[in-house]
């Protein structure tokens, strides 16, 4: 295997949109002689190692509030009429919002 440069690793990490630090990755494997595992097997595909690092340290998912003016009006109407949402309905709406966020 040809050793990658830090810029090659950084470009690959950027293309995968992960949070693997290319310089840390390169120095880690450079110090270990580009070997992996307990048995120190020579690395054959460095891109697979990047994916492993990515899975071990996933990017945090951030969910922005999706409270719209229509939601505010609906909630004000519900307060006036005495209608309230059950915990189940709140949960359904939250799960729906999270799924929509992940699709984007």
Question: What does this protein structure show overall?
Answer:
The chain contains five helices and two strands, in the order ααββααα. It is mostly helical and 104 residues long. It folds into two domains: 6-56, no CATH class; 69-103. A hairpin with a 4-residue loop joins strand 1 (35-36) and strand 2 (41-42). The longest helix is centred in the last third of the chain and has 17 residues, at 87-103. The mean pLDDT is 86.
Detail the topology: elements first, then pairings.
Blueprint: H1 6-16, H2 22-31, E1 35-36, E2 41-42, H3 46-56, H4 69-81, H5 87-103
Antiparallel strand pairs: 1-2
Kindly list the characteristics that best describe this protein.
104 residues, mainly alpha, 2 domains, two-stranded antiparallel ribbon, 60% helix
């Amino acid at each position: 295997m040809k050793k990658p440069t830090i810029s090659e690793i950084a470009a690959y990490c950027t293309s995968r949109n992960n949070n693997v630090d290319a310089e840390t990755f390169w120095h880690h494997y450079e110090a270990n002689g580009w070997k992996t595992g307990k048995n120190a097997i020579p690395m054959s595909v460095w891109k697979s190692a990047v994916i492993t690092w990515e899975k071990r340290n996933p990017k945090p998912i951030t969910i922005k509030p999706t409270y719209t003016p229509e939601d505010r009006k609906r909630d004000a109407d519900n307060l006036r009429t005495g209608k309230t949402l059950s915990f189940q309905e709140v949960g359904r709406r939250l799960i729906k919002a999270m799924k929509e966020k992940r699709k984007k």
